[in-house]
What we know:
Elements: H1 2-13, H2 19-35, H3 39-62
Helix pairs in contact: 1-3, 2-3
Amino acid sequence: LVHRSMALMATTSLAAKGRDEVALAEHDEIVSGIEARNPEAAGAALKTHISKAFVTRLKLDSGEVDSTL
């Protein structure tokens, strides 16, 4: 699921202005959960990250969000 989601959203969600910084912070939160050996926190952070990337992609496709491309 994670791999498929990443393949579908990576290029378009990162094309949104400011998404790179937001994604980096989300990645930090995922890693923090892993480092703390807290699978619930890591999983929740991952789900949030994927959801935000998906919403960003939808907004890019509809023109609601500016692209950096």
